[in-house]
Every structure is written in structure tokens, then in C-alpha cells.
Amino acid sequence: MKLTVHLGENSYPIYIENHILDHAASYIAETFSGRRVMIISDDQVYPLYGSRLKAQLEKHYECFHLVLPHGEATKSFQNLPVLYGAMLDAGISRSDLVIALGGGVIGDLAGFAAASYLRGVRLIQIPTSLLAQVDSSVGGKVAVDLPQGKNLAGAFYQPSLVLIDPTVLDTLAPHFVSDGMGEVIKYGCIKDAELFELLRSHRSFADLQPELPSVIARCVDIKRQVVEADQFDTGERMLLNFGHTLAHAIEQYHNYQKESHGEAVSIGMYQICRLAEEKGLTREGTAEKILEVLNIYGLAHSCGLPLADLLGAMSRDKKNLHGSLNLILLDEIGKSRIYPTSTGFFPLERTI
Ligand SMILES: NC(=O)c1ccc[n+]([C@@H]2O[C@H](COP(=O)([O-])OP(=O)(O)OC[C@H]3O[C@@H](n4cnc5c(N)ncnc54)[C@H](O)[C@@H]3O)[C@@H](O)[C@H]2O)c1
Ligand SMILES: O=C(O)C(=O)C[C@@H](O)[C@H](O)[C@H](O)COP(=O)(O)O
Ligand SMILES: [Zn+2]
């Protein structure tokens, strides 16, 4: 299946196909005719898929690779010089290409390095985690974390091509499958009640698995539409941040060492919904439905942190504009809106 993100001269195709990784070089050759390629990956993904990709690419290009430690700590500002250094050593120029092969950590980090190195070299995303396939590889948000907050240094930098091979998810650890499902559930919550009900109608991820390629395509298509409507996150795109105001604060609180992103998003979606319901801002029973679906896919809904401890990070959220905190709330499942408020929204004594 092919989807196209229409963004004028920054438009690009996304291919979703089982075993597409085995033909990656021919898709890449259609869009890139330069000389050198730098593959950036992590030490869990590269041993599984790196040489398969590199062997194909070597028929067309001079290939280099950089393998980084896996995990969120890698997506840090301190690591950028490692990527720039490797690209310089490989002689990567503006006519060359960076390929991000991995989960969202590699996609965001390699993407930001590609956006900033020489003021921009071409980028292709080959996402290998469920989260990266349904979310982070599409839409051009690239970033690194700062100690003060998630993704606080970054750019909007669209890839030239995204290749999604659902079969690589067979090697993904169950925890990270759940993580990806956190973002899948998010799409249902904000835009697609039918998708939400589909997720709710299964008993477990194993039960949903046969339908996974179409679920991935459905999520990617929602993201495509939102990004086409608001590439630079000034309105509609903020809806993709449902659950994220709390999630990013939770992740930052533990210095990105405890809750993984999808897990934190799950907690954030349930807890913000519960608070909004209590204030009469969301239809009653919505948080309970979210909880039901989180349980099906093995996701957390609380982390034991007092809201008071999360206010600092929430006050640095990128959706905050003109001194206002912009929360994403649901009217009901499938319908979301931006809700301008202040930190006063949060009962500080509450533990979530
Ligand atoms: N740019 C965006 O729009 C966007 C959207 C959502 C999330 N994100 C970011 O994405 C990051 C989280 O991404 P993630 O959940 O993919 O984490 P990740 O990149 O750390 O991947 C999760 C783990 O799975 C391993 N892995 C990945 N693919 C594998 C495979 N096929 N087989 C075996 N192991 C595999 C990785 O080595 C890693 O240990 C966060 O930093 C988050 O902020 C960005
Ligand atoms: O693409 C978007 O826009 C999103 O908000 C997708 C989120 O799932 C993702 O976690 C994103 O990285 C968050 O962006 P940020 O601007 O809040 O850092
Ligand atoms: Zn996210």
C-alpha cells in the first residue's frame, strides 16, 4: 500500500508492505541518485536488519553505518556530535543521504542530525518499532531531549521516503509492542471512534495481530491528514499530542529512565481524561473506556506521581502559547479539541 503526504515540494511517499525491507534499495534508488549513504541505527536493530539493508544498498551506493546504544538516553543533545562526527568521517555531503533504521529514538535523533548537519541532508525513515511505524516516522518532527524536557531541541524536517515493513515487528519485545499500541489507541481517541471500537473488540494484541498492517495504515493515514492540514503544529496537529502534556512531564521527571514513551502517553491519556470528566469537559464514561482498552494491550494508567511534581515540565510544553497551557481534551471517544487553560487546571495534591 502506498500513501502520499502532500506537502508541496516536501511531499513524500510512505510504503507499507510486508517484507519491503528486502526490496528497500530499489525504492530508495527511485528517489535518491547520490553517491553516499549513512545508515544510523541502534545496537538491537542493526544486528537484526542492518546487514540486510546495507548489502542491498552497496550495489548502488558507497555505504557507511553508525550503531548507537538502544534506549531513550541515546536521544540526547550530548549525542549529536557523535552523529555529526560519523557523517564527517564518512564524507557525507549535501548530495548524500541519511537513513534512520530503528524505532522512534533513532528516527528522531538521526532526523535531527540530518536536519542540522550542513544545514540539511536528505533523510529516509525505515521505522522498525510499532510506535515508529504508526507515528514517529511520519510528519517530520525530529528532536532530542534536554534534561529540562522532552524534544525541547528539534526541527520540522520531512523525510523523502518512509518504508514500513510490518514483519520486522515479529522481533519487537512485548513491552514495546504495547508502547506502540499506546499511540494507536491515541488515534482512536482523537479522531477515529471506529478504530477505537475495533481495538476494544479484541482480547489481546495477539488477537489483533492479523489486522495489524491495516491498523498501521489507518494510523498513518490519520497522521498524514493532520500533518497536511497543519505541518508546523499551530492548531490541528496539536491534537496528536493527546495525553502528551502529562506524558512528557512524567518521562522528564524520571530523566527518561523509567516510563517509556508509549507507556507515559497511556497514563497521560487516561489521567487527563479523568480530570476533564470530573470538570464536566468530557463525556462521562470516556476515561473508563480508555482504561478498558489500555488493559487489553498491557498498558499502564497510573505512575504514582503527584501532579505538583509535574507542573515545571508542563509549563515548558511546546503547545504553550501566549502564556496559556493548551491541553488536548476529548469531547468523547473519536472527538478531540484544544483546551486553552493554565496550570490551575491541575489539582496539585492529586497523585496520578
Ligand atoms: N517524531 C514524532 O512524531 C514522534 C512520535 C511518537 C514518538 N516519538 C518518539 O519516539 C521515541 C520512542 O520510540 P520507540 O518506542 O520506537 O523507542 P525505541 O526507538 O527506543 O525502540 C524501542 C526498543 O525496541 C528496539 N527495537 C526497535 N525495533 C525493533 C525490532 N524490529 N526488533 C527488535 N527490537 C527493536 C529498540 O532497539 C529499542 O530498544 C520517543 O523518544 C518519542 O518521544 C516521536
Ligand atoms: O507528530 C506530532 O505532532 C505528535 O505530537 C506525535 C507525538 O506522538 C509525538 O510524541 C511527538 O514527538 C510529540 O511532539 P512534541 O511536539 O510534543 O514534542
Ligand atoms: Zn507520542
TrEMBL record:
Entry's Gene Ontology molecular function annotations: 3-dehydroquinate synthase activity; metal ion binding; nucleotide binding
Reactions accelerated catalytically: 7-phospho-2-dehydro-3-deoxy-D-arabino-heptonate = 3-dehydroquinate + phosphate
A family per Pfam: DHQ_synthase
UniProtKB keywords: Amino-acid biosynthesis, Aromatic amino acid biosynthesis, Cobalt, Cytoplasm, Lyase, Metal-binding, NAD, Nucleotide-binding, Zinc
Domain 3-dehydroquinate synthase N-terminal: residue ranges: 66-175
Cofactor note: Binds 1 divalent metal cation per subunit. Can use either Co(2+) or Zn(2+).
Cellular location(s): Cytoplasm
BP-aspect Gene Ontology terms: amino acid biosynthetic process; aromatic amino acid family biosynthetic process; chorismate biosynthetic process
Top class in the EC scheme: lyase
An example Gene Ontology CC term for this record: cytoplasm
Keyword Ribonucleoprotein: no
Residues annotated for Zn(2+) binding in this entry: E183, H244, H261
Binding site for NAD(+): G104, V105, I106, G107, D108, T128, S129, K141, K150
Cofactor: Co(2+); Zn(2+); NAD(+)
3-dehydroquinate synthase C-terminal domain: residues covered: 180-320
Pathway(s) this gene product operates in, as recorded in its UniProt entry: Metabolic intermediate biosynthesis; chorismate biosynthesis; chorismate from D-erythrose 4-phosphate and phosphoenolpyruvate: step 2/7
EC number: 4.2.3.4
Classification via InterPro entries: Dehydroquinate_synthase, DHQ_synth_AroB, DHQ_synth_fam, DHQS/DOIS_N, DHQS_C
Role according to the record: Catalyzes the conversion of 3-deoxy-D-arabino-heptulosonate 7-phosphate (DAHP) to dehydroquinate (DHQ).
Database matches in PANTHER family: 3-DEHYDROQUINATE SYNTHASE (PTHR43622), 3-DEHYDROQUINATE SYNTHASE, CHLOROPLASTIC (PTHR43622:SF7)
Family: Belongs to the sugar phosphate cyclases superfamily. Dehydroquinate synthase family.
Name by which UniProt lists this protein: 3-dehydroquinate synthase
Organism placement in taxonomy: Bacteria, Bacillati, Bacillota, Clostridia, Eubacteriales
